[in-house]
């Protein structure tokens, strides 16, 4: 989990810098000083600009959530491959995920019989010849859809320990999606929140993801991806 931990800490520092910047702009005494036409101008911060910065924090926090979960799951898959785990020794949960990944390409009425036979033969060959299991790291199925409930579902399907709390992750996800899909303006999203509100979201997100990383690290270190004897 070293790569995930390092990336997480790096992103946290970037986010802390952004929120420190937000706090400066949250002070009524803060002004922008610049020179225009040779004249020094002191200007108060436009409230709309501050609201835009608040809204942008949802994008930043969601980016941290998705990158951390993605990196953590990929580390599980890479450890399975590095340990040369076969289907026979893979946990029941991960067997289901691997089979699903292998069959996802088969869409109803969208394949020829020869193609179907080829996929079945490939799966059978991997199992019978005890080939090392390799997961599709691009097939994670949660882009833009991660909140605490979805992460609990991932914990159940993979087998790592769930984490409590994280109630605000659904708000972060929803606000991010409305911005990303152009459903709402930055002003519409940010106007109902203060800087202190989004700081609370940040703190909860940091703590929640730290717990997730700990749980997945334990999952990997105890080789819980292997079938129980």
UniProtKB/TrEMBL annotation:
UniProt cross-references to InterPro entries, sorted A to Z: HEPN_MAE_28990
Record domain MAE-28990/MAE-18760-like HEPN: where: 3-225
Pfam families named in the record: HEPN_MAE_28990
Entry protein name: MAE-28990/MAE-18760-like HEPN domain-containing protein
Source organism of this protein record: Chlorobium chlorochromatii (strain CaD3)
